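JOB MANIFEST
job_type = single_chain_structure
chain_count = 1
residues = 442
[input]
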Amino acid sequence: MPELDALIAEAHAALAAIQAAADARRSTLAALASHRSTLAPTDRLHLFAIGKASLEMTLAAIEAVGDRIDRGLVAAVPERLAALDPDALASLAHHRITAMPCDHPLATHRNLDFAAAAHTVVSAVPANTRLLALISGGGSAHLASPPPDVSLDDLRRVTDTMLRAGATIAELNAVRKHGETLKGGRLAERCPAPIDSFVISDVIGDHLDVIASGPFTPDPTTFADALAALQRRGATNASPSITAHLTRGTLGALPETPKPGSTVFERVRTSIIAHNDVVVRAAAAAIAHKRDVAFREEHRVERPVEDVASQLVHDIAPDRAVVLGGEWSVNVGQTRGLGGPSQELALRVALLLEERGYARPYACLCYSTDGIDGPTDAAGAIVTSETLRLARANAIDPVAALREHNSFGFFSAMAKTASTACEHLRLGPTGTNVNHVAVLLT
């Protein structure tokens, strides 16, 4: 079907544009070039990086200001660290930068090891140097540092419960900031040197205190906010120790995180260098380059995935493109299927268009820019007007998959058909994270 093939090609062009716009290395190089004049030539730098883009940002920093870097510590996505070429590894070693593998979204013991090293390294930065902090989404999990009365298992259970309940990143990170020891500006408190922080935002609205739980940022939230988020998402029983810890905080028995106006942050300069709006505009530009179409482009969409699906198809019409960017959530309840927001959105769009009787060719790209959609190794999917017909012809039930929140299972089964009418995007971790993008083409 030539029309459908053309739409699939456009979806791939949009995907390529999104990936280029989300490139962490390019964003970091540009930011350091524009800020180089604010760093005196004699400034010596210690480097600290957390998040899914940490390695890419670190290597870019070495390229831009490597002559000033004395040493560093990096939390690394394990797959990205394993894939580094010998020259990159040698460059890290030459600048005395230690890269430690860390897991996401649920912390493991190696995350605790990294957080302990972070506390030691950041506290020891000489006051006559500067700390170059490179922050990106995923940094909250990397910097896992529960207090003595909270175990790693407690932290994992609360995180998992809130994620499965569809908690927003602001809710989850309010709990992390008050249920741990280094987030919510507390790492800035421990650093005796001036701090230059460069941030790739994975948070809609670019709220600095939420991105990676703001280790170098004033925290406007309180213990009461964290406890309320835990209660709202039905997670108070997931870990009685965290609930008790937050309750003690609300009673004034524990010190609050440092707030806006604290003198701690007079030594901190922060710049956001990439965010979701950039990739949405890139996708729209790529489609416009292919053909003249009517557009609906929306930014900063932060809603449950079922609402985003309705938003995508609301005013679908021939020769039209809809591009949405944001952070959508899935409340999986007690189901045990495997998937993520982008894969589930793609499946929901296909079923919703079928339900509404839409009969013309279409292609829909749903993509998570970090390459990791939920707890899976997929980045999302491309569905088309032929996807559901092909599924049923192969005895693959899309309705059952959606009911069980098993979009990963659905698209994995579809991949075995080897048809271009449906594509499971399994691209590996990308080394960046600027939220999700969805493109619907007709």
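[summary]
The chain has 18 helices and twelve strands.
The CA atoms of residues 170 and 210 lie 6 Å apart.
exit_status = 0
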